[in-house]
Amino acid sequence: MAKGGKGPKGKKITLNVAKNCIKITFDGRKRLDLSKMGITTFPKCILRLNDVDELDLSRNMIKKIPDSISKFQNLRWLDLHSNYIDRLPESIGQMGTLLYLNVCNNKLTTNGLPVELNQLKNIRTLNLGLNHLDSVPTTLGALKELHEVGLFDNLLNSIPNSIGKLPKLKKLNTKRNPFPKEGESQLFLDSIKRLESLYLVEEKDLCGPCLRKCQQARDKLNRIKSMAAAPPRKPIFSNFVSPNSMAKESQEDWR
User: Fold this and answer.
1) Which of 126, 161, 176, 187 is deepest in the core (most CB within 10 A)?
2) CATH number for the 18-197 domain, one of 3.40.640.10, 3.80.10.10, 3.10.105.10, 3.40.50.1110?
3) How far is CA 26 from CA 23, 33, 239, in A?
4) Which helix or strand (DSSP H or E) is residue 106 part of?
5) What pTM was estimated for this model as a whole?
6) For the range 112-117, what are the long-range contacts, defined as Cβ-Cβ under 8 Å and sequence gap of 24 or more?
7) How far apart are CA 82 and CA 57, in angstroms?
8) Host H or E run for residue 211
9) What is the pLDDT of residues 134-180, one digit of tens each?
């Protein structure tokens, strides 16, 4: 540690440096990539580039994300993983266009997750793994568009039921948490997998072609089941002549 108790002095990011770090993704999005730059303080100059679609500040030494992050009103993708962040700003809830948020491998506690996270109504991927969370806010159940949630390597004892009821959830990683019952994590994952592949509807809710297709598939399945259940019949070979009955002198002919 430097003299006077201050932490390491990080690299200074100027506006020109930041502009040179803007890349165009394969789908035409503007990404500001400031990852692995040795940054210790959020560079305020990048707020002048708030028209970017994606912002990558991962693998730095940033401790605090300012409220001004909400000025990135077009942001769809925000990667803050592998820093020293212990709290997210309340203003993050104002970033309504956000689809992807990665804050994995930081120093976040449950108290460091603002209630305003539940305002990210469009978010699809949320990675909170490798932090110090001892519980998951039930309000995350309001994020109905969530497809993937990372909660691995935390201090969790349970998962809220509201997470399991998310209608579009496909992947949930809760590995390496101190669940009190062995296998609780896997049981929860199994329930998500079943929800992913099971769809129940009533016949009245199906259109004519769909109903006929389902009925045909059901009839086919029933036929297969009945064939499998029927006892095998003993084969009858009335006209069969075994090789030995007409054996020739050379057995090579029957090999």
Assistant:
1) 126
2) 3.80.10.10
3) 10, 14, 70
4) none
5) 0.70
6) 112/85, 112/86, 112/87, 112/88, 113/88, 113/137, 114/87, 114/88, 114/89, 114/90, 115/90, 115/139, 116/90, 116/91, 116/92, 117/88, 117/92, 117/93, 117/143
7) 9
8) helix 208-229
9) 999 998 999 999 999 999 999 999 999 899 889 999 999 999 999 88
CB 83 within 8 A of CB 102: no
Residue 218's pLDDT is: 72
Residue among 139, 150, 135 at smallest CA distance from 100: 150
What are the structure tokens assigned to 82, written together? 């592998």
Please count the other Cβ atoms lying within 10 Å of the Cβ belonging to residue 189: 16
Give 176-180 contacts, CB < 8 A, sequence gap 24+: 176/152, 177/151, 177/152, 177/153
- Using alpha carbons only, how large is the chain's radius of gyration in Å? 30
Residue 105 identity: N
High-pLDDT (> 70) share of the chain, %? 69
Give the start-to-end residue ranges of the domains of the chain.
18-197
Q: Which residue, among 121, 88, 135, has the nearest Cα to 107 in the 3D structure?
A: 88
Closest CA to 62 of 45, 98, 38: 38
User: Could you give the C-alpha distances from 198 to 160, 194, 255, in angstroms and in order?
Assistant: 22, 6, 53
Cα 145 to Cα 32, 77, 93, 96, distances in angstroms: 25, 15, 15, 12
| Structure confidence by residue, pLDDT tens digits, 34-66 | 999 999 999 999 999 999 999 999 999 999 999
Pair 169, 191: CB distance under 8 Å: no
